[in-house]
Amino acid sequence: MAKKKSKMSNSQPAARKPAIPAAADTFMGPMTLAEKIAWWCLNAMIFIVPLAISNPGWIPGVADGTLPWTYDQFDIIKVCFQRGFTLIALGAWGWHILMNGGRIRRTKVEWLIGVFLGWVLITSFTSIHPPTAIFGKYRRFEGLISFVNYAAIFFITVQLADRASRIRVLARTLFWSGTIVSLYGVGQYLGIDPINWGNLPFEANRAFATYGNPDLLGGFLVFPLAISLALALSESKRGMRFVYWGGFLVTVVCWIVAFTRGAWIGGAFAMLLVIGLAWHHSVKLNEVDYTFMGLIGAAAALVVYKSLSATNAVMNVGKRLSSITDFDGGSAKTRFEIWEAAINAIKDRPIFGFGADTFRLVFPAFKPERYVADAGYLSVADNVHNYPLQVGSALGVPGFLLLYGIFGTVAWKSGRMLFRKYEGSERLVLVGFWAACAGYLAHLMFGLSVTGSTFLLWVSMAVVLSPLAVSTRVKAPSWGSVVAILLIFVVAAGSVLNVNYFVADHYYLQSRISDGDGIRIEHIEKAISLNPYNDMYRAELGMAHQEAFISLITQALQMQKAGEDATLVIDQARASFLRAEAAMLDTIEFVEPEYDNYVFLTAMYNLGAEYLDPSYLDKAIDIGLRGVEVEQYGPAVRFHLARAYFIGQDYEQAEIHLIRAAEMDPRWADPRLLLTEVYMATGRDEEAIPLLEEVLARNPARTDAQTLLDQILGNTESESE
What we know:
Radius of gyration: 30 Å
Shape: globular
Number of strands: 2
Distance between the termini: 111 Å
Order of helices and strands: HHEHHHHHHHHHHHHHHHEHHHHHHHHHHH
Strand order of the largest sheet: 1-2
Structural class: mainly alpha
Largest sheet: 2 strands, antiparallel
Helix content: 55-70%
Number of helices: 28
Number of domains: 2
Strand content: under 5%
């Protein structure tokens, strides 16, 4: 009786099925120069985008403290590289077709992608704020332009990844990029970082590498986890198999020390898929594989064991894992509140949504009041942390169905091929890309989609569909040279605009760090001229003029105190105030749903009322009330509105808004302190004492609260005497 063959057998089957189905057009001639340029750009994009940062501190010889090139040090440079390489790749490929003819490859998913892009275009014009829907929110950038870019990346990948050897090259490119990013992340965990990032908004020694945030890094790592494992299991050369396993080891460690739960789920899912399909396809293992499996297990166990002694819950793997099921505390609690806001937004506009990447503008109108108490009055969610809800609130239910219809169609069409029984390893690279897609989508159920990672989802989808593509031979048209030249001009113009996008953020950074008011204003005006669609740049212009006003009015007060004539300086201060007012009103007109701008302008009008003209109180009240309409659960605007009422001695209205602000965020002391002054002004000192005691119990360092309490107690003692 013949013995059953083990799934991990070293023997080969007698007859092998093709690892990858042959394309309809089997002609695979040498690349033209234009095709080579497109191919190099695709590989350069996959390699460079994950590595790109605008802080030059990593460059040898650059002194510590050197400023970055842009204010946004991570996302904007990734977006610009991504769009730049896409433009050149499409231009070069288009030149090749127009001048030489060739093959156009189709996967039958393009029509669905086209319908989806058409829907995103429609929702951009029906959006709560079309500029954001088109360009994306600053530091997110996932608007219409990015979706068009994803589609272009998908298309060019299908055209160029037309054989197994090229698919493997793309996998290797991603492997090397992911390994470098992971090495940097592990170095950060070990306290080795050549770049000075300043104060970080998360735990020290938590890996974030070139993504600026551990959550974003974790999402990216899903791709190299799946790809490096697939390469290791499919490589025939012993030396390269060793290299791939080494890269996988580093990536696993970095994945753990990012301490990102959503990425742990997505990465684990992706790796299990690769392992399961490797077993299904009877992949052979050797001593290198078993050795590295042991090393990886030991390294992971050591990192996890070390983390168990960490007192910080985020840096403790055990506590981090157990917190996944803790729905009533920590970040999980506020996450559910954000999801609730997104669901309410979808119910409000189920068809067209509010526009791509507009959730920051939508959130204030739909967030539950308890979110303010749980997250603090300064917290604003600019992302849902759940991609289906993010897409649903942005593009409506039809947009969600179209996008996830694309994902489902790709998974089904390619999955039927990849799950078909085959003894051998060649198909495993495709399996790696397929598993990476599945793992990343699982991660997006709990994480963020940013262009610096999500473009790899579209690359991966194109790769797994590429073997199923149908080729059509086309001849070079007679008018091809004319259109090819026009295409070059279009690529050049797009490239200039792309560079301007980057340069604008450089001037924004300069405006944030400039000492002189004049230089600062000059820089921000330059940023606005290069990119007039970024509302943060516009808001910064108003803040720059306001700071110039404060500086001048302070100088005038000092001159008056010294007995000098300050008329000229006061006139200059008034002019700066008017310019600040105009800039802030322009920003509000440009992006009416942005709550912060109402807070800024209300506070500035209060300053104007105190130092220039009491009539500015009316404007403060008007803008403050508009801010309350934009965000009914906004303590900050209510505080400044109440201050306007207080200055105008309308103590009843001041009290109403201060009580609401204090109720919304019990940890914020300022509303309670101003409410104390309202009570003191209306002869209700006994009601002020408990408020001040509460503030001091939370923060004993608040000397202003102690001063007010001493004043009240002193008055009480005087009256008793």
